[in-house]
Every structure is written in structure tokens, then in C-alpha cells.
Amino acid sequence: MSRIGRKAINVPREVKIEVKGSTVYVEGPKGKVNRTFSDRVSFEAKDGQFFVKRAANTKLDRSLQGLSRALIVNMVKGVVEGYSKELEIIGVGFKAQMQGDKLNMLLGFSHPVNITPPEGVKIETPKPTQIVIKGIDKEKVSQLAAEIRAVYPPEPYKGKGIRYAGEYVKKKVGKAQATGSK
Fold this sequence. Notes:
By secondary structure, the protein is α+β, with helices and mostly antiparallel strands. The chain is 24% helix and 36% strand. It is built from four helices and 13 strands. It is elongated and about 65 Å long. The termini are far apart.
């Protein structure tokens, strides 16, 4: 049984949740987000709490109930606090900067890499080797961070590339050290 799905969602006073059909609209101090859910779940609000109900007790319904609740919690947190992902660029001559609304990265390729953020997501570059992605939609922020990291993922020999802040990259021994060169 879904234990997560049965838990109530505490809704802060500054957040307004509205349900129209199978679409949930969440509005808060940082903005508005909405998401359409499966018809197999329904929603109920009472006494400052929000509940996700399932249609039947099948495995699919139980898993959809837990997923829907987790997504709504993320929506509420997004409109209250917002989400942020931080990336680090490691490598000689590697840097990033904002040019208008695009992120321009120089990563040792023959050309600069330009990335345009989706609507509702903001990119900042406090330092040339640091990228901060902010927004109210956790999915969009995380997806953009993953796409930027995928341009030049950290390689295991020198550690060059783009990584999440605090990410540990296990380094491998190079060919010269592995064979015991003389």
C-alpha cells in the first residue's frame, strides 16, 4: 500500500491550490505552476490540508497516488521557496557567461556552446566557473542542469568537465601509472 500517497499535504497560508478536472493549479509568492494528473486519482482539500485519493486499490493506482502526492509537494515547495541547482566547471580555459538570455560556454571545443533556458527558469553565472540554475518547477530546473552537465560530463582521468556542486568524481589511474612505466 502507498504510505506516501495517504499522507496529507500541509498547505501554507500563502499558497492557493485549485483543482479543475484532473489539473492542479498551485499559486504562491514566487509564481504559478500547474500539472495534469491521471484520472485514476482525485483530490480533496480540507482544513489547510490537501489529500490525494485513488480510484481503486490496484498496484497502478497505489503508485499513481504516491507519485501525484510527491509532485504536488514539489509544486507547493517550488512556489514558496523555489529550486536551485549549482554546477561547477573544471578545466583550464573552461568558462561560462550569460549573453542576454543565453548561457555561452567555452569548453575546449572548436565552437562555443549556447544554451537557452526554458520559460520560468533563470540561469546565473556568479563566477566564470560556476553556473546557478533557479526556478519554481523542480523538473525544469533539474532537466536543464542535466542537459548542461551532459555537454561535457566530468571525465575520470583529469576530472575536467561540468559537475554538480559537491559531486565527487572518482579518478582513475592513467595508462602510464597502471603499467608501471620506467
